[in-house]
Amino acid sequence: MNTSTDTSPLTYGEIVGDDGIWTQHLNHVQGTGLRPTLFLDRDGVILEETHYLHTAEDTRLMPGAAACIRRANELQIPVVVVTNQSGIGRGIYGWAEFAIVQEKMLDDLASDDAFVNAVMACPFHDNAEPPWNIPNHPDRKPAPGMLLRGGDMLPIDYGASWIVGDHASDLQAGKAAGLQGGVHVWCGHGSHPGQRDNAWKTAGNGFTVLEGDSIADVPSLISMLSD
After folding, report:
1. Which residue of the set 6, 41, 126, 166 is catalytic?
2. Has residue 33 got a pLDDT over 50?
3. What average pLDDT does range 183-195 have in this prediction?
4. How far apart, in Å, are the Cα atoms of 81 and each of 84, 131, 163?
5. Is residue 21 situated within a structural domain?
6. Domain containing 121: what range?
7. 107 included as an active-site residue
């Protein structure tokens, strides 16, 4: 699905590399030069949190998600989804089910004139089944691997970019990738014990932390990124 006006060749489809990471480039970036980028966690941020989401029927956009992403699109700010998917590593569902959820998400965004530029997904987890049981995998948040992969396909200005997540680990990944800051949202897992406190602990050394109830609170940040 290409919802941009750029008709030059893109890489599509269900792309899982030999390293086991889903890396998908969906839309080229408009404009020139390095761009501030919006990194978004998926479950609890773009989509309503459903334990191990893997069906189209349970895939629902969070209120305000399409509006936030559409505003980024209007300002030519790339949007990159970075999501841990331990359900795959644990054998609860597979990449086929992940693709079904993603197609529903992209279609629902497109119906509201919004699109994402890239999607990264990591199935690795300490308690996963082999071969997914690699401890502290460099692509599993809080490690920054997925965010850094984005720079291989998009012109990302990491020092001017932000991440939005409902886990402290989302912000930890953002800081490790050299982002300007992160927004911790209260929805999804954000209200679980310790999440907000640990998110605030990532602040400092050039990394700014903001808080919100949900992605609906983020568009004002998007406007700031475009300044």
Report:
1. 41
2. yes
3. 93
4. 10, 24, 10
5. no
6. 31-225
7. no
Q: Do 92 and 129 touch, CB atoms closer than 8 A?
A: no
Sheet architecture: strand order including 38-40: 22-25, 118-122, 79-84, 38-40, 162-165, 181-185, 208-212
| Number of domains forming the structure of the chain | 1
7 located within any domain: no
The burial class, CB within 10 Å (0-12 / 13-18 / 19+), for 45 is: buried
41: annotated active-site residue: yes
Whether 109 is covered by a domain: the verdict is yes
Q: Which amino acid would we find at residue 107?
A: D
- The enclosing domain of 181 has a CATH number of 3.40.50.1000
The whole-model pTM stands at 0.92
Which one of 6, 18, 19, 43 is the catalytic residue? 43
